[in-house]
């Protein structure tokens, strides 16, 4: 006995739905299974200051954006090689070996330590305005004259080691709110000078990333309104690094947006 037309239509719709759902789920699972992610870089990538460390020596944090991205996306493979204090030679010596022809996604944050970030911040925190500006000028000369070539060499190595990977270079945030008072912090003039140094560093990194064909995730807009001296800072005033909230609410969205398909 033939089914009524309405019943037959309902069964047909149900059958089509039962076919469509597994196909979609299967394609999504296949895409996730293809991602092999390697996270390289310095303390801003490893998560120094974000707590919950899986590796104390390198201050690799489970709250850092690479680990958070991996948790959220469940890639087929994830290698967290970033290490606090790393400079470009350290990445070349200790981290790029994690890359290979099967790597499909790479994140990299580097250049701050090479430009003398730590010593510059000490000069600005504990010395005069003129000493702070001198330290920033010295760092700026390195960023303009030497860093571009060193980044080009590093980026070429990354591409050679991971020829099929999407590479996202992650920049640095402005550290301080500019203008107004900052109780217990730097003067307004010092804060402006430090942020200008960050601009120069980011512009150099972004330029070399573009020349290499890599994406650039800018940390400055990601942290805007949450710098040191704001009421809701996502950067620690004590260690001048992003907090766990900074990684989750600023770096993670910036990195995720830079990854194609997101």
Automatic annotation (TrEMBL):
This entry's Gene Ontology molecular function terms read: hydrolase activity
Q: Which SUPFAM superfamilies match?
A: SGNH hydrolase (SSF52266)
Signal peptide start and end residues: 1-25
Highest taxon of the lineage: Bacteria
Under Enzyme Commission nomenclature, its number is 3.1.-.-
Give the matching Pfam families.
Lipase_GDSL_2
UniProt keyword annotation of DNA-binding present: no
Q: Which CDD domains match?
A: SEST_like
UniProt keyword annotations, A-Z = Hydrolase, Signal
Where in the numbering of this chain does the SGNH hydrolase-type esterase domain appear?
39-248
| First-level EC class | hydrolase
Report the PANTHER family cross-referenced here.
Answer: LIPASE 2, SGNH HYDROLASE-TYPE ESTERASE DOMAIN-CONTAINING PROTEIN
Full protein name: SGNH/GDSL hydrolase family protein
- Native organism: Streptomyces atroolivaceus
The organism's lineage?
A: Bacteria, Bacillati, Actinomycetota, Actinomycetes, Kitasatosporales
């Amino acid at each position: 006995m033939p089914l009524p037309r309405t019943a037959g239509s309902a069964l047909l719709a149900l059958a089509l739905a039962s076919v469509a759902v597994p196909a979609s789920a299967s394609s999504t699972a296949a895409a996730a299974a293809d991602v092999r992610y390697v996270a390289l870089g310095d303390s801003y990538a490893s998560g120094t200051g974000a707590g919950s460390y899986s590796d104390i020596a390198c201050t690799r944090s489970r709250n850092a954006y690479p680990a958070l991205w991996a948790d959220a996306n469940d890639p087929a493979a994830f290698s967290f090689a970033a290490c606090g204090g790393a400079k470009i030679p350290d990445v070349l010596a200790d981290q790029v070996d994690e890359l290979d022809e099967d790597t499909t996604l790479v994140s990299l944050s580097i250049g701050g330590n090479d430009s003398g970030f730590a010593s510059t911040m000490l000069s600005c925190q504990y010395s005069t305005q003129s000493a702070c500006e001198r330290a920033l000028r010295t760092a700026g000369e390195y960023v303009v004259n030497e860093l571009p070539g060193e980044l080009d060499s590093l980026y070429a190595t990354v591409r050679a080691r991971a020829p099929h990977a999407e590479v996202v270079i992650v920049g640095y945030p402005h550290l301080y709110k500019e203008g107004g008072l900052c109780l217990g912090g730097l003067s307004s003039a010092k804060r402006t000078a430090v942020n200008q140094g960050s601009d120069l560093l980011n512009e150099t990194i972004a330029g070399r990333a573009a020349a290499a064909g890599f994406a650039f995730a800018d940390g400055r807009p990601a942290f805007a309104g949450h710098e040191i001296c704001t009421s809701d800072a996502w950067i620690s005033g004590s260690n001048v690094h992003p907090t766990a909230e900074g990684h989750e609410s600023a770096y993670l969205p910036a990195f995720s947006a830079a990854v194609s398909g997101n």
